[in-house]
């Protein structure tokens, strides 16, 4: 699905997405254009080549998923394109599925001082929010410049990580608590899966720091000095996000320790039970076996009170054993 | 709550907090101003915008908690403000609650060569101490310059970490001792919680080193060369604090090892008890069962002394077993 | 086995591999040459010395396996050779044997702006694919330049890692699952072996990042600016590969944790079984021993219903014990 | 306690410690002075301020213990002092108490090209050795220059770590051996304590490398080029010391592994004992119980040889069980 | 033992080791000299001072063992010596004793563009091989220059590590296999000892990379550009050696994991045996005790087939128990 916003030099606004219209906008140096491609068809992707004349490598990266976050400068390497531009890969959170499987969605961005092209397979909250804002006040928003649009998208994208972090914290608390109280193999499996997800998640969002850092350092001429400070803010939130993910990664490893300790604790508990049972039953067995012996001359056997005295002694011993087990906390 | 100290060029002292008065001070290049906002109302925060004309991003950061420690230079990026200034986020210890939950309090500082604005939600010991000192001798203190005021606050702030470190050391000793002697699941939970707190604490105070380092390196023109050496001293104490927290983090991980080892030790002890009981009871059972057999022709059964001889042999065996268990340290 | 493609200045194509022909191509500055040596004989290797006049050290490295990935500039160090050239060692995946033993194959490359010499012991998919492409359209391919040929080979080589990574992921899933459900010593052995392979694999492909990075940084004059961006793409895929291998290395270490936890779980299960059996049998033993005592005067013994009442009580106790064990999840 | 050595420009030697005498020495640019303050009184410390006019911050650091190793240049920051000087904090080994508690002693040094002031609370072997040497040949030693004196002290100080390292190695061997053979909770406690000491020790001596490195890099003008190579030698010994401490830190962590493994081994041993006892006793119990049954018609019971044949069979079974346990190494 | 090779400017070869002869060689700028001191006497060491006039610190380091690998430039620091020289400490493998105890031998090298002085306590394979080669063709070898001689020695020295690495790999395989199959305390002790050796070994050879790197980077003028590429080759082999040692260090830590897992496995096995025995014996005990009761009225007791029916039921139960244990893999 294609969405386009164009502002011509004379201030005219257009939302047409035909190739000719887009080409016309690109002709005017003072015009501004934003094209968003959501789950684009092959035909729509063709526009990247025919209208924008992007480098084949960049187009290939944009059409194939699973790119690392990166910012590539195509200003000097590309003769086919008359003006300089950047190609950026950034990962936003997958806000729909993170509860089942923690993962990121890729967003590919081409930008120059005249246009912004965003390509993504699935709908992205951050792009959608910016689209709505531009739709509401196209003239003013396009006036502010392409770098400003880019800031809006990235700011939303980074903020969208927050609910995931909150969810993760709850999850971790839950896992830790279960590891402590119900250390079943299922908990172990959950810990392993969560650890894997976090390692993978960290691997995807970690390199974004460097990408955004390039935008804040003034290396990218398209980002004007007054806007740059806003990207510093995005960077700040991103660093906090990455740090929190790293903290969670450390904590999930701690959850495994809790799990192991908890199993050891349970084993101790079981062994205490077994030992206690043995200690309780053994005197009974010893005494009863004793009086099961077939010696002709044995004390107590023939005495009328023998049985009751023996039972009394046994009861006293058992009470003592119970008291001992209680005191040691084994019962 | 707003507190303000102003020294006009003519040496006049003012403690008025009205917007007009503050604006008047800011007019005079040689005047000095310190405004402290404790748990500020929306109206008070408005002053940051109307009187000081700080950058919206900085104001937003100052009004929302949970910022990473940072030092941002707004000298060149901000046209609305006629003079250069810095925005600093620093974390002081939460001296009130650290025994229940180890955490930091955020302090936001705006400073230029003319003014210092401190914003914080909860009362902070370091700010309070500096406020009292300035109240006692306003003229002299304001005379020394804004960088000096900043030093006083940061110096107190870093020193305030010391009682927390002492408390942590005691806590750690206590946890280690309990892990060794009473390895209950509660101790494990305390270790996990403490580790989490320390990781979080470290994450909040670690980046402050870089923030203070910028003040000592002469990058911030507002800090004069003669004052800079004092910030070097603050930096020194801060590094020591961070190193100590890192040491504690390593030690709390060691506490988990002690806990695990201790559980294993207890398990060994239980098993030794169980084995000992078995070894003690088994001869009795074997002998008594033996003489419980119903063979018509068995030795000892019919002999008058059979019973007593058997008992004697059993007693000897038991004494030997007890002696063996004692020697092996199992009793 | 020797394969050669040469394009003379006048556009003539030659596939002859004789030393004289090769020397003739090297004479012409505008001619282009690619010589591939697969499992070369001593005689074929001799050409490196006689025709190309490479540095003895480089030839020695190329003829002995087990070199670290590296890129060495022989432009200035070598007087015997009239033109500058580079010697490169790169490791491709061993696509044939990775299921039994994860390892890499070494590919040695000499290249200047005029020629490309590839030396490898075993057949390599990436070289083969490029050879076929050049064979299909020799003129056009040789026209594009030596750097372009190098890109083709490296691009294929890096892509060839992908099926291995997919296979590894499956393997890891399988190992994790077995560690969880069937923690036999064989699984432990597989984990140890896999970890070793991954450490070794990582050690071989990790340094390649630096090698390729040199090609993308413009340090190698032979790589033209327009081609360089393609090596950036190769670099990107390589980094992703290395990161994935590192992730797998972390996960295989996690598999060991799962294994250990799983063993502990099994031990707990065994102990629960043992304790349950003891708890079930003990009342039977106690009661039956009790009535095995030979006291002359004992209750129930002589009563006609004594036996049945005793049995009833025993049955009730056993039902209760079973219910308890069931509730605790021990059965 | 104050000790002073002064050499006036005219070669006259003085050991007077009065403030006036010291001030007089400082007046002459060619005079040389060393003042050592061991456990100085408040009055003696006053000299740092009145005679040497050191910066208040440096004096404060020197009078309060627990500074991190550091080298601070007070050449440009201090107008009150007419000449440039350095303030250095260095930690020497506590040679008296390291067997009970591994720790360092702080040595504070002020030095310029004219004087050396050493401040320390407890007597230090390295300072004492240098004092004696200067006392023996004051003229020659003072002639060599202040940097030379500094070298002597630091050289001794670093060498004084050697006996501690030797002692630590023996300790570690002892702990490892005990962890293997007698894994009692006391050993675990010793391991934890030693690890803590080593982490702390490492934290104190680690940063000294950077301090000494500054002396060898020519950043400190007071250290002449010919002397600098001697500091390189000190640096070398220091690095070796730190590396050894780091090795010991790794080894003490290994000792914990040995401890844990050793406990597991013991548990296995106990369980083997328990199982063996069970296996030995069980046949006796089974057989004797068997013949304790009250069936009217049972084989063997009434046969004259029944008892002896049964005993024979039991003996054979027991011999076999013993042989089995022996073969499996469980006895 | 002293060995010397000298080539005078006029091409004359001398192998005399007298001080006068050596001094004479050093006089001629175009003469070349190599002096090797194996286990030198105090008198021989005196030559370093009297003939070569090396710096006392360098001589001290060369006469005392246990130096870290380093390269020190004495070109500018030393006025007593008329020409610039370097002092190098390098560690070669101890090829004689590595099977008992993995360690290195120190080799001290002084070199300038005119001479090479090698000092070592024990015979070194690499020095010996170079000595023999020089003895065989002194004129040609000395002609190639001092840097070339140095290369020969270092090349051999690094290659001498290879057999040790091969031996270590075998050792590791052996230890891993034993840890898996026979986890006795002796294996644990071997693992701990090997780990310690590897940590120590790594610590000795690791810093050599930096030493050799200095030779390849063109910082040492004595190494000519054409020779430098050969040192790059030495560096390459050295890095591979260090990487392999690091791999082995990781693997030996893995061996401990295998050991621990293996012990847990054995414990499980023991517990399975114990549980199985209990399960097998318990029905026998229950049944026999049952019929040992002295109730006057009990079923089966007085029936003629009672005994045989009971035995039959017991046999069926036991077969079922055996089958169960077999199925669960506990027997």
Give an overview of the whole structure.
Five copies of one chain form a homopentamer. With about 325 residues, chain A is α+β, with helices and mostly antiparallel strands. Helix content of chain A is about 60%, strand content about 10%. Chain A contains eleven helices and seven strands. Chain A has helices at about 20-25, 40-50, 55-65, 125-135, 140-145, 145-160, 160-180, 185-205, 210-215, 225-290, 305-325; strands at about 1-5, 15, 30-40, 70-75, 85-95, 105-110, 115-120. Chain A has a seven-stranded mixed sheet, with helices on both faces. In chain A, a hairpin with a 3-residue loop joins β6 (about 105-110) and β7. In chain A, α6 (about 145-160) runs parallel beside α10 and α10 (about 225-290) runs antiparallel to α11. Chain A is rod-shaped, with a radius of gyration of 35 Å. The two termini of chain A are about 70 Å apart.
Kindly state the number of beta strands of chain A.
7
**Tally of individual helices of chain A:** 11
What would you call the structural class of chain A?
Answer: alpha+beta
Mean of all residue-level pLDDT scores of chain A: 87
Helix content of chain A: 55-70%
Beginning-to-end CA distance, first to last residue of chain A: 68 Å
Report the portion of residues of chain A in β strands.
Answer: 5-15%
User: Greatest chain-chain interface?
Assistant: A-B, 45 and 52 residues
Oligomer: homopentamer
- The outline of chain A comes out as rod-shaped
Radius of gyration of chain A: 35 Å
Sheet with the most strands of chain A?
A: 7 strands, mixed
Please write the string of helix (H) and strand (E) elements of chain A.
EEHEHHEEEEHHHHHHHH
Low-pLDDT runs of 5+ residues of chain A are: none
In what order do the strands lie side by side in the largest sheet of chain A?
2-1-3-7-6-5-4
């Amino acid at each position: 699905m294609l969405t386009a916003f164009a502002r011509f030099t004379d201030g005219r606004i257009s939302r047409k997405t035909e190739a000719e219209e887009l080409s016309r906008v690109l002709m005017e140096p003072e015009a501004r254009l934003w094209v968003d491609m959501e789950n684009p068809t092959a035909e729509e992707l063709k526009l990247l080549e025919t209208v924008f004349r992007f480098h084949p490598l960049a187009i290939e990266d944009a059409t194939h998923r699973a790119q690392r976050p990166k910012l590539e400068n195509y200003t000097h390497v590309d003769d086919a394109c008359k003006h300089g531009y950047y190609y950026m890969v950034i990962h936003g959170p997958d806000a729909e599925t993170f509860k089942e499987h923690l993962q990121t969605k890729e967003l590919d961005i081409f930008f120059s001082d005249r246009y912004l092209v965003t390509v993504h397979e699935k709908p992205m909250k951050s792009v959608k929010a910016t689209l709505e804002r531009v739709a509401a006040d196209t003239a003013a928003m396009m006036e502010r410049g392409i770098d400003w649009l880019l800031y809006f998208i990235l700011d939303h994208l980074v903020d969208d990580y927050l609910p995931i972090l909150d969810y993760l914290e709850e999850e971790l608390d839950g896992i830790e608590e279960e590891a402590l109280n119900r250390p079943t193999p299922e908990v172990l499996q959950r810990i392993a899966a969560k650890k894997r997800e976090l390692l993978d998640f960290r691997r995807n969002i970690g390199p974004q720091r460097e990408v955004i850092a390039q935008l804040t350092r003034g290396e990218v001429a398209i980002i004007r000095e007054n806007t740059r400070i806003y990207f510093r803010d995005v960077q700040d939130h991103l660093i906090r996000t990455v740090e929190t993910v790293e903290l969670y990664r450390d904590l999930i490893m701690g959850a495994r320790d809790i799990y192991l300790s908890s199993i050891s604790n349970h084993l101790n508990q079981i062994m205490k039970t077994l030992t206690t049972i043995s200690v309780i039953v053994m005197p009974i067995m010893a005494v009863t076996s004793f009086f099961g012996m077939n010696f002709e001359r044995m004390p107590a056997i023939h005495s009328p009170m023998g049985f009751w005295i023996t039972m009394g002694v046994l009861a006293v011993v058992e009470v003592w054993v119970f008291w001992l087990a209680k005191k040691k906390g084994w019962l």
